[in-house]
Amino acid sequence: xxxxxxxxxMRAGMQGLRLTPDAFWRLTPAELQLMLGQGxxxxxxxxxxxxxxxxxxxxxxxxxxxxxxxxERS
Length: 74
Description:
Layout: H1 6-16, H2 21-26, H3 29-35, H4 47-56
């Protein structure tokens, strides 16, 4: 036994997501997990969290780079 609850996954995919059997069996486990809303990442960083990080790790004086410019000097 693999420990995977196939009947539950089939119900979730074919009844809950309305997938055809062919579409269900073509999915990878990661794709099915994503479609079921599992394994999603954390919410994006809020402005308050960014401000807190900037307070702890401020930009160094004299760093006057525009967004997207590289640190490398030629």
